[in-house]
Every structure is written in structure tokens, then in C-alpha cells.
Amino acid sequence: MDTQWLKWAQKLQAIAQCGLTYSQNPFDIDRFQQVQQIAAEIMATHSNVEPNLVLDLFKRETGYATPKVDVRGAVFQNDKILLVKEKFDGLWTLPGGYVDVGEPPSLAVEREVYEESGYQTRAVKLLALYDRDHPRHNHPPFEHHIYKLFFLCELLGGSPIDNVETEEATFFAEDEIPDLSLSRVMPAQISRLFAHYRHPDWQTDFD
Length: 207
Description:
Layout: H1 4-22, H2 26-47, H3 51-59, E1 68-77, E2 80-86, E3 92-93, E4 96-98, H4 105-117, E5 119-131, E6 146-158, E7 166-172, H5 187-198, E8 205-206
Parallel strand pairs: 1-6, 5-8
Antiparallel strand pairs: 1-2, 1-4, 2-3, 2-7, 5-6
Helix pairs in contact: 1-2, 2-3
């Protein structure tokens, strides 16, 4: 999948966002706004979304541009992994989501697992830190640059619940994995988490 256009759009948006954050000269501000408009048009052209919608999304991002942080919990029970079903697309994923400002990643993943599945857990090891845009992960294109942190989480208790984003929370064996929400997690990543589960002495993956 050729996503060079996405890299161009993300880099242009990052340049524009940083420029708009620190520039005071009105001519520079105008130039960075034009760069942001071009980034929105590139992304809209390749994603069948109205440029104004993309531009509004970009304008909501302020401050120095950095990747967003997404945490995912790998919770195992009886050699099975916990997945939740997304209401948005009806597909399955590891429980997780974005880290809030001021929140340690380990607490963020424990919170996300509980909110999306009803299970209480304790983060015990960072299994992988992946750059979502790295070609080897093959995620579908997305407007933001994201780092994905996969934590091994020890199951402490709780029971399945539904929330506004997910429904159903079920443990699956490695040969039973249902259709995944590929924007959130890839089959190869699930397989790698099972491998980490079987080899607890392995070091953390990255990139």
C-alpha cells in the first residue's frame, strides 16, 4: 500500500501546526495557514473526505506537533486473549485508546481495559512500542501519527460490560481470532503478543 501521500500530509500539517504555534508575524501566519490548507487537500483527495472537514480537524490540533499515544492491553486467561467488539465498525480489537494528558501510560491502559471490557487489570510489562505508520505494520491510513504501546496486563477481577464505544468482551484462542478492526490492531500484532505470552523473558519490541 503506497501511503507516501499520507506522510506528506502529516509532515506538512506538523510544520503548519508548529509554525502557527510560535509565529507572530502575520505574513508567516498566513503562509502556515496555506500549508495547513494544502495538507488538508492532500489528505481529503486520497480519503474521499471534504477538505473543510480535514482542515477543521487539523485546526483543533495546537501546540508543538508530536505523535499521539495509543495504549492497548493484552490480557490473557487460559491461553486466550481478551478482545472487545467496537460499536463503530462491528469488528474486534484489544481494549485501549489514547492516553490522557497527565496520565501515565500504565494507568491509562488499566483504565481503558476496565472501561471497555469491565475487567480490572494491572499493567505488568510493556511488550511492544510500535510506530503505527511504519510500513511493516500495514495499518490503514490515518490522519494522525500515532505510537502504539502494547502492555501485558494481569487479570485481577471483574466481569464483561458494554460501554458507549464497545460491546462484548470475550477471550479468544490464537486460532479463533475474529475479524479485527485493522485501524486499531493487526493480526500480526496479535500473533506477536501471543508469542510474548509464551516467552515471558523476551525484551520489548519497538518501531
